Please model this.
Amino acid sequence: MKEISKKYEAGKYEENIYKLWEKSGFFNPDNINSKKKYSNILPPPNANGGLHLGHASGYTVMDIFGRFERMKGKSVLLLPGKDHAGIQTQVVYEKKLEDEQGINRNDLGRKKFFQSIYDFCLERANYMRSQEKKIGVSADWSREKFTLDTEVSKIAMETFVKMHKDGMIYQGERIINWCPRCKTALSDIEVDHKTVQGKIYFIKYPIQNSEKFITVATTRPETMLGDSAVAVNSQDERYTKLVGLKVILPLENRIIPIIADKRIDKEFGTGAVKITPAHDLLDWDIGQDHQLPIIQVINEKAQITKQGGKYQGQDVLVARKNILADLKMQGFFEKEEDLEINKSICERCKETIEPLISKQWFVAVDAKKYSLKKEALKAIKNGEIKFFPENFRKTMIQWLSNLHDWCISRQIWWGHQIPVWYCEKCGEEEYIVSIEKPLACPKCQGKKLRQETDTFDTWFSSGQWVHTTLGYPQGKDFKEFYPTDMMIMGRDLLFFWASRMIMMSLYRTGEVPFKNLFFTGLIRDKLGKKMSKSKGNGIDPLQMIDKYGVDALRLSLVMDTTPGQDSRLYEEKIEGFRNFITKLWNIYRYSTTASPEFFLKEKIASRDVKSVADQWIIAKLNETIESVTIFMEKKEISLAQEKLKKFTWDDLADWYLEIHKIEKNNQVLGYLLDKILKLWHPFTPFVTEKIWQDFWQGEKMLMMEKWVKPEKKLEIKKAQELFEEIKEVISKVRNLRANYRIDPAKIVQAYSIKIKEQKIIEKLARIEIIEKLASTKSIQIITKNVELSLDIANLIDIAKEKKRTKKEIEQLNQLIVKIKNLLANKKFKDSAPEKVILQNQKKLKEYQEKIKTQKELLMNITKF
RNA sequence: GGAUCCUUAGCUCAAUUGGCUAGAGCAUCUCGUUUACACCGAGGAGGUUAUAGGUUCGAGUCCUAUAGGAUCCACCA
Model:
């Protein structure tokens, strides 16, 4: 006989099993002959990265649904890809260049720099791909895409051209978030905020032709070089007289007005604010409304410009120090106070953001001809997309409602260069939007054209991921799989990505990109902290796979989780699921070692279901299949798994297998094993396929088996109740034995006037039923179909048993009163559903029976 | 300032959307014999579901308020 190891050695089989699946070709939907389609475009991870737990949990969910749908007979497409991740990758790569070669991007030049990142990403992508395969994702690798692939980017570029035609693109000098380290503009969403301890400075601005001052408060005194006004709240009585007067800007001696604006907070600082339109977002708005001059005093390297006079060339922080010193010397400095400041930082490199005026490209999100914002809102409000969790819909609606125009140009090299061309003769005022380089300038026929150097925001292309990867508009995949069924992502991508995909795909294709949008939560550590490299509290999924196997990791990532809700992960948890995998393995091991002729059974006949236990377990199985299927369809993975686990461990392993040792029925056992392998496969694909292959030897593959259905014909209701009763009797005996330390090896003698399933009760409760008991005293266990008298009266504490029984009677009495009252209540009868009423009636009967037997028992003990 | 989520056993989480005596796992305690499994089995202890009200025949679940925690968005001159 074949040796099977006691434990499932995951590492030994995983690679080969994945190869088996891959070789079969069924990851590719073209090889599945089915009219029913299911598609999920996988979110592309950053090509430069490595696999972390966030990816692992996402992929697990995607794969679970993918495998489930495939087993339901659909032609399933899970389309994988990689994202060039513009700024992030450039930041990483520049650091690498600096560290390894001591050079920067300018040393290489744009072309070489681009090419070398490209090569780097390609190499990393290979690595990343092998890691993704380890998770078990059943993705079609032959369709793998990269955001910079020509066919993908072409479609994304065409969107820009179309948007331009539709009047949704404009170029403008506006205030934007500038990262001095990345040297690029950022959209609002790419800016993070961080509270830091800082100072607020009070500076006196002298009023023209007066001895008086107006004091302004600022956290950034260096920007005063670019002030073009002082503003107060229009309702602020302290200052109404001053509005319209002029002040002399200290250090610069420029004359600027005092203006009134309702956006100024009276309570904050002195209620008077210096206005620097070039370096503050709110000041920019106020400056626009009051037509104030814009004076740029900070440049793109965060240094003072020529406009800043004697401070020119100084870094902002140096300039701040010098300016404060000069103000003090000249008597304009009033005081400083500590203040918590909410600093804007670059999401990617954490550098302090400088708001600057800069010429950038924008997408109008609410243009006349087509409103990205309104169309997306309409679709979402119409319920064209199902959200998991549902309340994220509201969050999305709110965010979209407040959406501002989107700055899409970045001054980095790693990305899609914007398809705009300038004529060298005509200058920047004239530009041509075209994917191909135009032959000549349409105005002057000049041939010297150069392309815009800016690149697109990464989200401009990844926001089109669904329809570009499917080859909109003519692609076969687009026609077959769009709109896709499912999209799964981390909840942090709700605004960044989900919203943009909805807007842009709707704009291009007229349809939403996906019908279901499922969010995973963040994976936190045991203490609920975010995992991060710097804290060193991260868990490496690959290490966990090596140690516990992928199936265990997959379970630990999705079980006990709720969509969109953060969850905690730690090794003990993974270990627990590894233990379950071992249990599954041992169910298989028992089945084959106990009966060498054992085999999996797809179908069995009613006559094969013989004993009460058989009937009971089949009924349990049916119930499990039913609810697991329903839960899966409702996308309740966690509940499905819980139900399955309970059946597998409690019902099958702990009860049915034990009974199988007493009364073997390999037909039923083979049938059960066939079913649980299929049910578990989406969740734990490796171990189930391994067991399956051991039986079928390559004849067929579990991955392609059909999802199971309950066989109601095999079910007999009566047996269920009886078996539950047998279980209860056995538990009661075990309970008594444990309570009174009766040696587990001791076979307790018992007498019975009424018994069913004698052999099972005898074996599992470790008792022996004999003709006549030696002792006249005995402890009784009474149920509907069983009456046992156990010869253990001399071993137990009678007083204690009496007390326990009395307590139970009391409890039952309370329950009975409660239910009786409920059933007597007219309102309850009128309004409660039929099902609930029946349930309660049944319950009442049960309690009444129980209380009867308990009373008998008490009487019996009292005799002693 | 606006919004969302969370608070259930010592710990981590459930509870099929308002209906069975609120369930699991881990940890803990007691005991371990069997034709799979000690990564195991049997049994026990552990709960006023954060607090206070309300709606309801019925509330962990719905509403209101309070407290604590988390997150997101906006603003902070």
About this structure: Chain A is about 45% helix and 20% strand. The longest strand of chain A covers residues 191-206.
